[in-house]
Amino acid sequence: MKNLYSLNVILLFIAQWSMFNVQCSMIYAQDGPVDIDEWQVMKVEAAKDPFAGGEQFSINFANYTAEEWCYPLPGAKFLSPYGGARNHGGTDIKTFAGDTTRAAFPGEVILSGPHYGYGNCVILRHANGLETLYSHHSQNLVKVGQWLHAGEPVGLEGRTGRATTDHLHFETRVNGKSFDSERIFDHANHSLRRQIFIVKRHKNGTLKFKSEEVER
Ligand SMILES: [Zn+2]
Question: CATH 2.70.70.10: which residues of the chain?
């Protein structure tokens, strides 16, 4: 925890330093304003506790551009939902063995390797406060610390770990706790739900999820 805190401080310092440099170069550069490094800002956001600013945070998926999201397994058919009697922690979707799973949002690889019943598993942490998990890969294609754009390859669809068929077990998470990915992805249509997604943390630590239509 302490390590994480000091990492945050270092990342914030780096971001502030680079923003300071950008401001300086904007003053002195002759060839127009310089863009703030968007990746740098995202890295700082992704390293932050999503609840750092209060007991709730929200993501406006209505504004997401094509570069900001990707369905994790393009063309997949739906296999089994989150929850139910066996308390399923994710959503199972399927195409064919060896197909490529893709980063749902831009983010950092925080785990890549064999992980209990998940088999070959990858977890990404995103600047929007979410984490996504991809498992049962025949092979992971990414390494811890790597940064991915939305849609970049994560792994190859497989059946490692506790799996009886080749498929992708996909999870959406907040602070390591999974929630139904159907809340943000329309799995039947392989699309992102164009809503404002709100995550609220109660005093006892439980999370509540809510979606609101965007007023037009
Ligand atoms: Zn599953």
Answer: 77-212
Read off the tokens for 202.
């109660």
Which distant-in-sequence residues (6+ apart) come within 8 Å of 94 by Cβ?
73, 76, 77, 79, 157, 165, 166, 167, 168
Q: Could you tell me the distance, in angstroms and rounded to a whole number, from the CA of residue 98 to the centre of ligand 1?
A: 17
Query: What's the pLDDT at 35?
Result: 59
How far apart are the CA of 161 and the centre of ligand 1, in A? 11
Q: Ligand 1 centroid vs 170 CA: distance in angstroms?
A: 7
Question: From ligand 1's centre to the CA of 216, what distance in Å?
Answer: 37
CATH no. for 77-212:
2.70.70.10
Looking at the chain, how many residues does it have?
Answer: 216
pLDDT digits (tens, 9 = 90+) for 200-214: 999 999 999 999 999
Tokens of 131: 């984490």
Q: How far is the CA of 187 from the centre of ligand 1 (A)?
A: 14
Q: Distance between CA atoms of 114 and 205, rounded to whole angstroms?
A: 29
Alpha-carbon span 54 to 199, nearest angstrom: 11
What pLDDT is recorded for position 32? 45
Q: Is 190 exposed, middle or buried (0-12, 13-18, 19+ CB in 10 A)?
A: middle
Residue spans of the chain under pLDDT 70:
1-36
Region of 207 (left: φ > 0; alpha: ψ -120 to 50; beta: rest) is beta
Ligand 1 centroid to Cα of residue 169, in Å, is: 4
